[in-house]
Design a protein that fits this description.
Elements lengths: L5 H11 L26 E2 L5 E6 L8 E6 L5 E8 L8 E10 L3 E11 L4 E7 L4 E2 L5 E8 L6 E9 L2 E11 L10 H17 L8 H11 L10 H10 L6 E3 L4 H10 L12 E5 L3 E5 L10 H19 L6 E5 L8 H8 L9 E5 L4 E7 L2 E5 L20 E5 L6 H9 L5 E5 L8 E6 L5 E11 L4 E2 L7 E2 L5 H12 L3
Parallel strand pairs: 14-15, 15-19, 19-20, 20-24
Antiparallel strand pairs: 1-4, 2-3, 3-11, 4-10, 5-9, 5-11, 6-7, 6-8, 6-10, 12-22, 13-14, 16-17, 16-22, 17-18, 21-22, 22-23
Helix pairs in contact: 2-3, 2-4, 3-4, 6-7
């Protein structure tokens, strides 16, 4: 699953405060177009790249064209908010008919909002699917609507240079009289259920007979493993920890990009850490997320800390007053290369602790083999993997809502070290430890097994609140002023 971007979710939530919820899909064939050229009852986003909507001949009527251009970063979205009342507690199926003018990545998404700001129920985004050129095709998403759902958002998203005609959007409650799933699909679902049951932190609290029965009913007619993905995601949602998620097999484009990079290369466009010297006295490093499970991940896991280390060592040559570690766009992935690259700035281990549902702990510690989680802190922890003259200087950590998962773990690994203060906004709220488990078709389930505790003994259930709250664009300025105060300027 390629998750809907945070910016889009925030836009939809904000819009939802003013939008009138409709029962069922309105203007499902895009026949009614407003004077400004947008389709009635639909929200047309203007994300990265250039996006427009135009009337076009559809399969069942006029239809509409979603056009996106601007390269790989471009995203075009058309969405509608649906009244959840008729669907609460029920299984629904979203179906969309669409056609791409050229080969593209496009597909539907279904997002269920629940009470409290930005709290989600079922989420699925099928826009990473390859869409063949010139051929009408249908894509479906099946999922269960939470009993306390406050809104349902449906829509279609197109990625990169795309020209997609959309028609006949339907949100239906299946009759429940579907054909049984194939033996292969049923076996695949049962394997996923077994992994979740064995590893999920909330497994002991779950009503497994009910959840298994609902999941089996949800895959009626499924023939392949992909036909079970919605049921698996729905089951994950029912377990109540949003950090657990299903990762489908890599796409052909991902595999091709990794092959092109070669065994010692990094896929083009992959973000890596950057570094800069601020005012000649403050070393700044900015950490992005790090996906090591997509093709080429092993090489990224080596390159990421090497680049971060080189940046720190270069900055350390200056007469530094302090450091800024910018995690505002660290969306997560693999935490261990992040900690390895920051090693000397972390202070004395342990840097954090994993805590299981039974209370068992594992410390994040330095060992001769690197920073890892261990059952007990070594009596004589290993020294940092590399030395910095200014390792003990003050460290300002910048966080915000895009600081999620391993980005939050990296922030937590610095919290409690002498001379560390956090600035910005509350983090994304994915503070838990996942184990990534493989499925037979190349998909993986990232299963939440543990919660986390910082080195001071504080437990975290949700987000990190900064020591100094600021707006996102003022965090670095506030951090700089604090560091200068520590240096007596």
């Amino acid at each position: 699953m390629k998750r809907i971007g945070l910016a889009l979710i925030v836009s939809l939530v904000a819009l939802g405060a003013y939008a009138e919820k409709k029962t069922g899909v309105v203007n499902a064939g895009f026949e009614q177009v407003l004077p400004d050229g947008t389709p009635d009852a639909w929200f047309v986003s203007h994300g990265p790249g250039v996006q427009s909507f135009a009337s076009d001949k559809g399969r069942h009527g006029k239809g509409g064209r979603l056009h996106v251009s601007g390269g790989a970063a471009a995203i075009g979205t058309i969405a509608q908010q649906i009244d959840p009342a008729p669907y609460r507690g029920r299984l629904v199926r979203l179906s969309v008919t669409f056609r791409a003018a050229e080969p593209a990545q496009a597909g539907p998404f279904l997002t269920v909002m629940r009470p409290e700001p930005y709290r989600f129920g079922f989420i699925e985004d099928d826009s990473s699917r390859p869409a063949a050129a010139g051929k009408w095709q249908e894509a479906t998403i099946t999922g269960r609507i939470a009993p306390d759902a406050t809104a349902i958002w449906i829509g279609v998203k197109a990625l990169g240079d795309a020209d997609v005609t959309i028609d006949n959007v339907r949100l239906e409650v299946p009759s429940g009289r579907g054909k049984p799933p194939s033996p292969q699909a049923l076996a695949y679902l049962d394997q996923a259920i077994a992994l979740l049951r064995a590893h999920h932190i909330n497994s002991a609290k779950a009503d497994w007979p009910r959840l298994i029965a609902e999941a089996h009913a949800e895959i009626a007619g499924a023939k392949t493993s992909a036909g079970t993905y919605s049921a698996i995601r729905d089951l994950i949602g029912a377990l109540g920890v949003r950090h657990t998620f299903l990762m489908p097999p890599p796409t052909k484009s991902q595999i091709d990009a990794a092959a092109k990079a070669g065994p010692t290369g990094v896929v083009a466009g992959t973000e890596m850490p950057t570094s800069a010297l601020l005012d000649g006295r403050i070393g700044v490093v900015r950490l992005p997320g790090l996906d090591t499970f997509a093709p080429g991940g092993a090489e990224r896991a080596k390159t990421y800390p090497a680049i971060l280390r080189a940046g720190l060592e270069q900055l350390d040559k200056a007469n530094l007053c302090g450091w800024i570690v910018d995690l505002r766009n660290d969306t997560g992935g693999n935490m261990w290369p992040m900690l390895a690259g920051l090693d000397p700035l972390l202070g004395a281990s342990p840097f954090g602790v994993f805590v299981s549902s039974a209370g068992a702990t594992q410390s994040w510690s330095r060992t001769p083999g690197g920073i890892v989680s261990v059952a007990a802190e070594p009596a004589s922890p290993a020294p940092p993997a590399f030395a910095l003259k200014h390792a003990a200087a003050p460290v300002a950590v910048l966080i915000g809502p895009n600081t999620t998962s391993s980005g939050e773990m990296t922030a937590l690994a610095l919290i409690g070290r002498p001379g560390v203060r956090t600035f910005g906004g509350a983090s994304g709220g994915f503070l838990s430890g996942n184990t990534v488990l493989p499925l037979p078709d190349g998909a993986h389930i990232a299963v939440t097994e543990v919660l986390v505790r910082d080195r001071t003994g504080k437990d975290y259930a949700e987000m990190i609140q900064p020591d100094v709250p600021t707006s996102p664009d003022m965090a670095e300025q506030a951090a700089k002023a604090w560091i200068e105060q520590q240096c007596g300027k």
